[in-house]
Each structure stands twice: as C-alpha cells, then as structure tokens.
Design brief:
It is a single chain. The two termini are about 30 Å apart. By secondary structure, the chain is α/β, with parallel strands linked by helices. The protein has a 3-stranded parallel sheet, sandwiched between helices. The protein has 6 helices and 5 strands.
C-alpha cells in the first residue's frame, strides 16, 4: 500500500485527476454487497486521494458498456471531470485494463507485481508497482 500511496500522491501533486475504474462482477453474482464495496472504495479513495470511483457491478454475460475491456467507465469519468483522455494514462493489472485504456485513447501501464505478466494488446509501459508506474508517467510528462 505504501507504494500505491506514494505513487498516487506524486501524480496528484503533479495535477493529475485520479479515477479508479473497477469491474466488480461479485455484485452481479451475489457474492459481494454493494454497500460493503462502497465502504472499501471510500476507504481507498481517502487513503489514495482518488477523485472519483467508477464501478461496473455486471458480469460478462450482461454485455453492458461499462465492463472493462469496454471503455464506458473511463469515458463517463472523462466527461464528468473534463479529462483529456489523449493526455491520460490507464494503469491496471489485467489485460482488460490495458484494452479499456487503449479503446478510450489513453496511454497504458500494466502492473505485473500481482497481475498478468503478458497481455495483448501490449501496454505502453510495464511496471512492478504503482510507484514505478507513477515515476514513468511523470518522466513521460517531462519529455
């Protein structure tokens, strides 16, 4: 968590708007209560200084527009918060994250510490942690 806190803090200090987009099919499957997930997301938002949280409570068979790899949650957040997706980065630990970011027009970073080692499409950068991802993003901005 320390690396995540440091990474998010650095990005926010640089002026980035932090949005968490998360698939939570456990809600559709009846395994997770929306209220419990809301408590977890509030805690994360406060701890990591996240501006907005978008949740897809659906499962694949629901064929919704918000479930990653579809970019629905990203596009919704961009419209609400006036985010330029061409200047944005999607950081995630699954192929669905990379694909959703690509579809939305973002640069993408894959965290491999606890996630998938290889994905298609290929992310713009691969990092071992959110702290490393944030360092790369901030380095990209300076170029």
């Amino acid at each position: 968590m320390a690396g995540a806190e440091r990474g998010c803090s650095s990005l926010r200090a640089a002026g980035y708007v932090l949005v968490m987009v998360t698939n939570q099919p456990e809600i559709a499957r009846g395994i997770q209560r929306p209220e419990s997930l809301g408590e977890i997301n509030r805690w994360l938002s406060e701890r990591l200084w996240i501006h907005s949280v978008k949740v897809c409570p659906h499962d694949d068979q629901d064929e919704c527009d918000c479930r990653k790899p579809k970019p629905g949650m990203i596009l919704e957040a961009a419209e609400e918060l006036r985010i330029d997706l061409r200047q944005s980065y999607l950081v995630g630990d699954r192929w669905r994250d990379v694909e959703a970011g690509r579809r939305a027009g973002c640069r993408t970073v894959l965290i491999t510490g606890d996630g998938e080692e290889t994905v298609e499409p290929t992310p713009d950068f691969t990092a071992a942690s959110l702290a490393e991802a944030s360092e790369w993003i901030l380095g990209e901005v300076g170029r």
